Structures are given as structure tokens and as C-alpha cells.
Amino acid sequence: MKPSRCCLVLLMALSTPYPAFAQSVSSSLSADTSPRDRLSFPDALTMAWAQDPLRSELGTNRRSAESRARAAGSWFAGGPSLSGSYFDDHAVGSNLGYTTYEGGVSVPLWLPGQGNATRKLARADAEAAAERSSAEHMALAVRLLDASAAVLLAHKRVATTQALSSAAARLSANVARAAHTGEMTQADQQMAEAALASAQTDAAMAQEEAQMATAGLVALLGSPVAPDLLAFSAPQSAEQKLVAHTVEDNDPRIRTAQKETTAARADLVLARRSFMPNPEIGVGAIHEKQYGSPWDNRVGVNFTMPLPSAVHNAPLLAEARNRVAAAETQETLARRMVRQELVQIRARLASASAALKSAQTAAQQLDRRADLMERSWKLQENSLDDALRARQAAYTADLVRDRAEILWHSAILRALIAAGAIPGLEQTPSARPRQPSALVVPTTAETDSMNDAAPPHTRQPGEALRIPEMVSSPRSSGAPMP
Questions:
Q1: Where are the domains of the chain?
Q2: HEC-encoded secondary structure of 423-480
Q3: So what's the pLDDT on residue 428?
Q4: For an engineered disulfide with 458, which of 159, 165, 338, 454 has Cβ 3.0 to 4.6 Å away?
Q5: Does the record bear Transmembrane in its keywords (predicted)?
Q6: What is the mean pLDDT of residues 60-83?
Q7: Could you tell me which CATH number the domain at 3-75+113-277+311-451 has?
Q8: pTM score, two decimals?
């Protein structure tokens, strides 16, 4: 092997410009986040809510309950009933022409307090349906956040893996030419080809992941444009809004459970007021055709009142009590869930900040280490395998850093959603927010270091990956956020 010529080939490979198609990918990603095409999260939430099928169902439930409340304002407990009968002696009897016609109309009456209880139950059901709509709105915001974060991470991984694949292809071609002329060993060529195959596999998997993530976003949003999550970068403000008692009392899931409990108790009151079937009152008339009869028409009043019975009352009361018990249980579980969720959100907000700072440091240090290993390899101080492993570790750290960055922004936005601080999800606080303890977060220079000077091959968040020819990549990194 001729060391001088080998180093010349490698220097030519390392000085090859950044891949053209990787630049196009980077430009397309930056175009997605340009001011002209940028989609804010509140606007995206409005779009998703407008086409949410459950929104129409809950709106129908609310309007139906309101119509029941209006109908319960009637004077009577139900609609009128008509009755009629006809008798004669033609078919069976004396056949003397005796004929009787009877007819009547009656209406059911409200039992004491039954009408008012019916109206209260209908109004409570309408309020519960409205609160369920608010809870679904909040759940949709969380699903939209997860889908958007998955799309952003998938796009970053696509740009990274495509750049790696292009660089690995050039490296493999250069090593193959050097091996053909005897300047490099066959083992180096096989190692370069393996790195190319691994990079191509990662690129294909990243494309599949991006398509699946985009499909999930389109199902929610109706558009493949991901909302701008990177605009949320104020963890201290989000922490201040997470006042435990205020968030808990105004959480739509707890309010829904409270309204369901109120409706269940109103149903129990109605069951107690309906202690027997509704009595009926009406008027009737009789017309008779009879030979020599001094009367032929009569008009009167009729009244029907079923008596109370345990057969009628016990099932109604049992069902109402069961509903109250289930509603109270759900309210207790909802409060426990919200309290636990607040603890998790606070912990994720703090851990995401620390993780981002650590991931940024690790990515910078491993990129520098990879540069040093490449330099040593060019000087024949170590093997190609060591340099490839160093670049692989740097690539993994870049993906971890990208994931930590998206998780950090997502944690901030998740805290704002829990606090109801997103337009359309606002909550009216019941107490003055307390000032929480200071939260350690990455500095502005660390989170917005794209404009700062960086060492060679040290990619900052949002930048295109600049790598030399010598590169490989793992297959298990860059998974979408949970």
C-alpha cells in the first residue's frame, strides 16, 4: 500500500461537499418552518377540533338534553290519550237496536315535584355533555401534540439518515477504488460497504417512519403540515401556570365528573318523585241509541290513579342509586388521575430540561471525538473501524439530542395544555398562582446555538448534518417520542 496516495484519496473523500440531496432535504425542512408556511399550535388545534367526529356527537347530546329540559316545562307529564268504544245488540242479544258510543280524552298529571326534578335532570345532562366536550377538546390537544412531535422527529431523522447514506456511498466508492489499486485492504472495503448498507437501511426505515407519522397527523389535522412546537420555549412560565389546586379544580375531566355526579343525583331525586305511575284525568262522552229512552247523550269526567307499589319503585331507585355510586367513583378516580398527571408533567418538565442540556453536551463532545479519530486515522494512528465507531456514536448522540430537544418543547406545551393556557382551552383560575421554585433549564445560548460558531462537524438543533465520508449509523436510534 502507498500511504501517501491512500491519504490523498481519503482527503479528497473528506473534502467532498455536503450532499446535494441532503441539502434539498434540509431546505425542505426549513421551508416547512418558514414564517409563510408555519402553523401555530392553537390554529392547528382549531383545525383538528373542527373535524373531530366526537365533537358533533357531544353537541348533539347537549342539544338533546336541552330540548328535554324545554319539554319538561309542559303542564302535563305526557301527551293526551284518546279512548273510544262501541256496543250494540245486533250480533248477540235481543236485536232491538240498542247502540252505545263512548269516547274520551285524558292527560297524565305530574306527581308532586316530578316536573321540576325532570327539568333539573335534563339541564344537568346538558351541562355534563358540554363539559365532556371540553374534556375531549383537551384530549385532542394532547393527541395532536404527540402526533406533531412524532412528525418533527421523523423529519429530522430522515434528513440525518439521508445525509449519512450519501456520505457512506461516496466513502464506499472511494475505498473501492483505493482497494482496486492496492492502496487499501479488502477488509477496509468490506467495512465501508457494510457502513453503506447500514446507512441505507436506516434511511429507508426513517422514510417509513416519517410516512406513518405524517399519516397519523393528517388523520387528526387534515393536513401534513406539522404545528410549530419549537415556539414554546419558556419552561418557567409553564411551571408558574401549574398551580396544583387551580389546575385540578378547573380541569375539564374533573368538571365533567362533577357534572356527571350532579346529573346522577338529580336522577335520584326524580326517581324518588316518581314513586308511582302518573295519574290521569280527562273527559268522556256517551251517545246511546235506544228505543223510547228519555236520554241519549251524556258527558262526564274520569280520573285514573295507580297506587304506589314496590314493584314499580324499587327498580327506579336502585338504578338511580347505582348511577350516583358510579358517578362518585369516577369523580374520585378523575381527581386522582389529574393529581398524578400534574406530578408527572412537573417531573417531565424538569427532566426534559436537564436531558436536553446533557444531550447537547454529549453530542458536541462525541462530534469532536469523531473528528479527532478521523484525523488520527488519516495519520494512520488507528484503524478505519475505530473511526467508523466514533462517527456512529456521534450520529447516535445527534439523534438523541434531536429527540431531547423535541421532548423539551413538548413538555412545555404539555404543561400549558394541562394549565389550560392554550387559546381555546383557557381556564379561569380560582386562586392567585403561587411562585414555584426555580427550574434549571438550558440557557438561551445552549438552546438557540444554531447561530453561534461551532467546531467542525458539530451539528446544532435544526441544522443539517455535516459529516465526512467515513460514517455509519445504528438501526435502533431515533424512535418517535412516546
A1: 3-75+113-277+311-451
A2: CCCCCCCCCCCCCCCCCCCCCHHHHCHHHCCCCCCCCCCCCCCCCCCCCCCCCCCCCC
A3: 46
A4: 454
A5: yes
A6: 88
A7: 1.20.1600.10
A8: 0.71
